[in-house]
Amino acid sequence: MRVVGEIDAYSAPDFRAVFAELTRDNVRFIVADLTRVDFIDSTGLGVLNGVRKRAVEAGGKLVGICTAPNVRKVFETTGFLQLIQLYETEDEALADMRGAKERGSDA
Amino acid sequence: MPEQPEDIVELIVPNERKYLHVARLTVSGVASRQGFSVEEIEDIKLAVGEACSNAMEHAYDARDQNAMIRIRCRVEPEEFIVEVIDEGRGFNLDEVVIDPSAPPATEHGLGLFLIGSSVDRMDIDTAPGAGTKVTMVKKAPGARDVD
């Protein structure tokens, strides 16, 4: 799932709707590509954490790909990095997902 | 030597979330003129966005068509000060727990925590029925070394 732009209180409802579709489609293992996200705030973190919770409840996992220092910093500052692992490359994220699927989710 | 007068830049936006981006962009534009680094400007953007989001979420009745949020930047030699002011319902500050040393255990209060960790000083002036003013202070580049 590729996310583009800013995730804030204005755009959050759109992201929630898209993520809700994934949940409806029983997608449990989600890689959120945030490489084209240049801003995230507490509302954005809340959206991602909601998706993560649902994925974990369904036996899945959510990880992210993130290269923007300011976006990563928000995850670090708030402790969300302990909940949502962020990778720098798609390969790393997908390798984590493959491992999680093989183990039947370790999130 | 006479003290350098402060510059004041003020933006007033309707109480609508579509203006969050405008508020962040305006403040970061003013901050960039004071010589802040990219990282510091991102901190300021985050803090201002969170303060505006909080005001838009809590200050007014959603049906209030005249509700406005005022964002005031004060550029001083030693400090960059941003005030986010609403004339909404206000709140009892004693009921809000702000611990700058650790993020809250739930998502509630995360915005205030992020403001506190992004600026050098934060102050909230509010009371039930009296509106809210959130003041955020970032020390100007160069002033940081003086401490």
Arithmetic mean of pLDDT of chain B: 90
* Series of H and E elements of chain A: EHEHEHEH
Q: What class do helices, strands and sheet pairing of chain A give? A: alpha/beta
User: Would you count the extended β strands of chain A for me?
Assistant: 4
Rg from alpha-carbon coordinates of chain A = 13 Å
Largest sheet of chain A: 4 strands, parallel
The count of helical stretches of chain A stands at 4
The residue fraction in helices of chain A comes out at: 40-55%
| Spatial sequence of strands, sheet with the most strands of chain A | 1-2-3-4
Mean pLDDT of chain A: 91
What structural class should be given to the helix and strand makeup of chain B?
alpha+beta
Termini separation of chain A (Å)? 19 Å
Tell me, what's the shape of chain B? globular
Show the largest interface: A-B, 18 and 22 residues
Low-confidence stretches of chain B: none
Pattern of helices and strands of chain B: EHHEEHEE
The number of strands of chain B is 5
Distance between the termini of chain B: 22 Å
**Rg of chain B:** 15 Å
Describe the structure.
The complex is a heterodimer of chains A (about 110) and B (about 150). With about 110 residues, chain A is α/β, with parallel strands linked by helices. Helix content of chain A is about 50%, strand content about 25%. Chain A contains four helices and four strands, in the order βαβαβαβα. Chain A has helices at about 10-25, 40-55, 70-80, 90-105, and strands at about 1-5, 30-40, 60-65, 85. Chain A has a four-stranded parallel β-sheet with strand order 1-2-3-4, sandwiched between helices. In chain A, α1 runs parallel beside α2 (about 40-55). The radius of gyration of chain A is 13 Å and the shape is globular. The relative contact order of chain A is 0.19. The model of chain A has no long low-confidence stretch (mean pLDDT about 90). The mean pLDDT of chain B is about 90. Chain B starts with 6 loop residues before the first strand and ends in an 8-residue tail after the last strand. In chain B, α1 runs antiparallel to α2 and α2 packs antiparallel against α3. A five-stranded antiparallel β-sheet of chain B has the order 1-2-3-5-4, with helices on one face. By secondary structure, chain B is of the alpha+beta class. The interface between A and B is medium-sized, with 18 and 22 residues.
